[in-house]
Specification:
By secondary structure, the chain is α/β, with parallel strands linked by helices. It has helices spanning about 10-20, 40-45, 60-75, 100-105, 135-150, 200-215, 235-245, 260-265, 275-290, 320-330, 350-360, 390-395, 420-430, 440-445, 475-485, 490-505, 510-530, 560-565, 590-595, 605-610, 625-645, 655-685, 700-705, and strands spanning about 50-55, 80, 90-95, 120-125, 125-130, 160, 170, 220, 250-255, 300, 335-340, 370-375, 400-405, 455-460, 570, 610. It contains 23 helices and 16 strands. The structure holds beta-D-glucopyranuronic acid. The site of beta-D-glucopyranuronic acid (BDP) has 10 residues, from loops.
């Protein structure tokens, strides 16, 4: 950003009104609260001579603090808090039950206010009302009002009714007790277990605030590859301390439960879910947890998946395992989130089909307080996957969505990829399972299924780096995930505009090109990594960079060659009737969309079909040509992103600007690496000339194959 000379006061004033001359503090995320433009500031000042808070408790304290930060930042004026209703010029914040009767009558249509929802409303005499029926709603209303101000809404236009459409809006941390983070690319875990419970890092509060500001109401603190120690007394003391920090922000704590905990920390010989001693042990353990944390949310469980213990070790089903925990939790209103990410090393069946086949037969077997957590696609958080076939097919069991915000398969925290666009794509897909408009979004909200327990989980991209997410722009993925958990039908473009406006400026010259950059970034990464439906061809173990040649890992479905099946004649995974027939797990309308390679959308071609290299696409290209040209397009689009970003310099604080620019350079180099490594590998297999229009690889295939990254971040040390 340009620094105006001090002597040019006039210019400074001008600049202040045209640019937002504030210094973005990456640690403050989207809660920058930079000064409003003068006219708007004056207007809002007439509405905020004081802030009336109708009660005194920890929620109202949090709200007061937020108004202090927000109004001081945006209006340059610290608000006065008052216990008295004023005739004019006041922000009135009150729960429905605390609302003074003069303000209740006919003013609010309470029918429109759902659980955790809120109302913002302009009253006469320059007053603004924030109200709700429960504390979380009041908190969310406060943030919504401050966000509307920051986004340039004028005070007399403020009128908003909004309620979350999903009950459980959670982050999942894959954080280990030693502070490493599985698939974490933003430093170490923010949970300092060693110093808890006595030292409460101020970041815990900032974390809770940021989450509350986007409506997140729960967090799973620990890795799904769980450590039973978290359930022991000393750790529960630490968890209790965190719960104390999060409670006023409406955030509940959940923990991952290691299925074999009764053996590991309970001294039992078995963890069989049908064994009475095991059930009793969990009953006791759960009671102990609730003695520490009376509002504990429940357990998240990864069982019989990738070596984790589970009920199948005892010949029992997933439902037997989940229900045992659910029975212990039910008296305390706790829930079990049981993951459907399962595949077996003994089962030769297409990995994409295994979860559906294991869960469908037990659709009616789960207890009421169990919800099954399903990844967005049937393989594993790939840059693009079709939606998971369990969505819509499981009619009786509540299903929650699991998205991955951390970019395990999307370039770590060095690539700029705006994930809400990808999340939106999945949410908007029609499953055709419940009549008209059976989108994944409406299955997640329960509107299509009638389920009352609903949820969304996002695998967190947060670490202890100053800017929380490693890539400064990856903050948008945390923000956008939260917004979609609140309302899965929001548009990713709208969310981009909000995030840009809250973080930088609402100036169109910035917001429009940057929205377009964010939206397009999602497709670019698919193009330069896994175009045309390719998947899981990344480096072994750490998943960093290209590795289409990987064929040496212990289990077939851990190897790239399993997924692309390339040989001299062709490439792709046949999931139609002539192959694994994974397609049959979808509704007939979906089958029809994908079954015929001539009409299958090209984005999914090699996901569902094995095709000859000279297969003709509708645009006249052969498959091989299209592959090369798409890789090239991906690379070129990253160059365009760099050009756009260069034009944004005047709107962005210098360190932030330079940080993103360096990362874009890394992304550009890595996009070329992806193109060159994958194309030279496939070329080595098919012997064809490189397609015209694609820049030929810079180095021989042997070079790309020789690269190793033993210290790539995010991988468990034991897996190196
Ligand atoms: C895979 C990750 C692995 C996770 C697993 C899971 O590579 O680290 O443990 O997902 O979701 O994508 O359980």
């Amino acid at each position: 950003m340009r620094t105006p000379s001090l002597s040019l006061l006039f210019c400074l004033t001008l600049l202040l009104s045209s640019y937002n001359l504030f210094s973005q503090d990456p640690a403050k995320l989207w809660l920058q609260y930079y000064p409003l433009e003068e006219g708007l500031k004056e207007e809002f000042l007439t509405y905020s001579s004081s802030v009336f808070l109708a009660g005194e408790n920890s929620t109202y304290d949090v709200i007061a603090e937020e108004f202090r930060l927000g109004l001081t930042g945006m209006l340059n004026s610290e608000p006065e808090f008052s216990q008295q209703l004023a005739e004019s010029g006041q922000i009135v914040v009150a729960l429905r039950e605390d609302l003074p009767s003069s303000l209740t009558d006919g003013l609010v249509d309470w029918e429109q206010v759902g659980e955790e929802g809120y109302v913002l409303k302009t009253l006469g005499n320059n007053r603004l009302l924030v109200t709700a029926t429960d504390p979380n709603g009041l908190l969310y209303g406060t943030f919504a009002l401050l966000h509307q101000m920051q986004l340039g809404e004028s005070p007399d236009n403020i009128l908003k009714y909004d309620s979350p459409r999903v009950n459980l809006r959670l982050l999942n941390h894959w954080d280990n007790l030693d502070r490493t983070v599985e698939r974490g690319y933003a430093g170490f875990s923010i949970w300092n277990w060693h110093l808890l419970p006595d030292y409460l890092d101020p970041r815990y509060k900032e974390y809770a605030r940021a989450n509350a500001s986007i409506g997140i109401n729960g967090t799973v603190l620990t890795n799904v590859n769980a450590n039973a120690l978290i359930l022991t007394e000393p750790y529960l003391e630490k968890v209790k301390a965190l719960a104390g920090v999060f409670r006023p922000y409406g955030i509940k704590i959940y923990l991952t439960a290691r299925f074999s905990a009764p053996i590991e920390i309970g001294g039992l010989e078995t963890a069989d879910p049908l064994n009475a001693d095991v059930q009793q042990w969990w009953d006791g353990k759960v009671e102990e947890i609730y003695r520490h944390i009376p509002d504990f949310g429940g357990f998240l469980v990864k069982a019989n998946s990738e070596g984790q213990p589970g009920p199948q070790n005892y010949g029992r089903t997933h439902a037997d395992g989940a229900n045992m925990l659910a029975r212990s939790l039910a008296p305390h209103d706790g829930i079990v989130m049981w993951r459907a990410f399962v595949y077996s090393d003994e089962n030769p069946q297409d990995r994409a089909m295994q979860a559906y086949d294991q869960f469908m037969p037990i659709d009616d077997a789960f207890a009421e307080n169990v919800i099954v957590q399903v990844k967005n696609g049937p393989i594993d958080f790939q840059p693009r996957e079709p939606f998971h076939p369990m969505f819509g097919a499981m009619e009786k069991t509540p299903l929650m969505m699991e998205f991955q915000i951390t970019q395990e398969y999307l370039g770590f925290s060095s690539h700029l990829v705006y994930l809400p666009k990808m999340f939106e794509e999945v949410l908007q897909e029609d499953t055709y399972q419940f009549g008209e408009n059976s989108t994944v979004a409406r299955i997640i909200t329960g509107e299509a299924t009638g389920q009352r327990l609903t949820g969304m989980a996002g695998v967190s991209n947060i670490g202890n780096e100053e800017n929380w997410t490693g890539h400064p722009i990856a903050q948008a993925n945390w923000y956008g995930y939260g917004r979609l958990a609140w309302d899965p039908e929001l548009s990713s473009e709208e969310i981009a505009g909000e995030w840009l406006g809250l973080t930088f400026t609402t100036d169109k010259q910035f917001v429009e090109p940057m929205t377009s950059l964010l939206i397009r970034s999602r497709e670019s990464v698919v193009k330069y990594m896994t175009p045309l439906g390719l998947h899981h061809i990344m480096g072994a173990g750490h998943h960093y960079g290209p590795g289409p040649w990987v064929d040496f890992l212990g289990r077939p479905e851990w190897n790239s060659v399993y997924y692309h099946q390339a040989d001299q004649n062709g490439i792709g995974f046949d999931r139609t009737v002539t192959g694994s027939n994974a397609l049959k797990q979808y509704a007939p309308e979906v089958v029809e969309k994908f079954a015929d390679p001539a009409t299958c959308p090209k984005e999914y071609l090699l996901w569902f079909h094995h095709l000859p290299w000279d297969f003709q696409l509708n645009n006249g290209h052969t498959l091989w040509q299209e592959m090369g040209l798409t890789y090239q397009e991906g690379v070129d689009e990253v160059s365009e992103m760099i050009n756009t970003w260069e034009r944004m310099e005047e709107y962005v604080d210098e360190p932030f600007f330079l940080h993103v620019r360096s990362l874009l350079t890394i992304q550009h180099n890595e996009s070329i690496w992806w193109k060159d490594a994958c194309m030279s590998y496939f070329q080595d297999i098919n012997g064809l000339d490189y397609p015209e229009g694609m820049e030929t690889p810079e180095k021989p295939l042997s070079y790309y194959k020789s690269l190793i990254f033993p210290y790539a971040p995010g991988i468990q040390p034991s897996w190196r």
